[in-house]
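Sanity check

After download, print the first record. It should look like this:
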Amino acid sequence: IQGLDQRAYHPSRLEALFQVYAEDGGFIREEGICQLIEDLGIDETGVESLHLMYMINAEEMQISKEQFEGGLAGIKCDSVAKMRPHLRHFPMVFRADAAQFKDFYCFVFRHLREGNKKFVDVAMALEMWPLVLSGDDLPLLPRFLEFVAEFMANGEVKSITQDQWSTLLDFLGQVDSDLEGYDPAAAWPCLLDDFVEWLQAKQKQ
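Expected C-alpha cells:
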C-alpha cells in the first residue's frame, strides 16, 4: 500500500510526529495511542484501530520509536493526514490478498494476548471475531460464535489457543454452511471437531 499519498516524505517530520505522542522513556503508551486514534478520527474499539497497530507492527499496547518509524517510513507516512488513506485502504488490500489478511488475523491474536501467553480469554475472542471476520464471506461464522458462547456459558471453553485461533480462519474458508468440505480425518483442533458435532446435532433437531 505504498504510494497512496504523493506528497513529499520527510523523515524529520515522522520523528517529530512520534514525539507528539511519546511519553518519557521513548514509547507511545496507552494514553498516546488513544490520542493518535482520536486524531485519526477512528473508533478505538473498531477494526481500524487494529489496522493501525498492524501497520506499525505493535503487538503490545505500547509503540517504540523503532516500530513507529519503521512501520510508517516503509509507506512514506510522516503525518496523521497521510496515515488516514492507508487505514481506509486495508479492506481492499485484504480482499485482494488472502495471505495478507491471514497475516493480519494472526497478528490480532498476538496483539490481544497478555505477554507471550499462547491463549486469549474466550470472551475477548468472541468480541474480536465478528470485528475482524465477515459472516458474509464465512457462512459458518455465526453458528461457530453461537457454539463458543454456549460452551463458554457452560464453563466448557474458557480460553482460545493460538492454534485454535489461526486454524479457525482456514476451517471457515474451507467448510460451508452444510459442512461440505469438512474432513473428519483432518488434523483440526478438537474445538472445531466439537463444533461440527454440535452443529450436526442442531441440524437433526
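If your output differs, re-run the checksum step. Summary of this record's structure: The chain has a mean pLDDT of 93.
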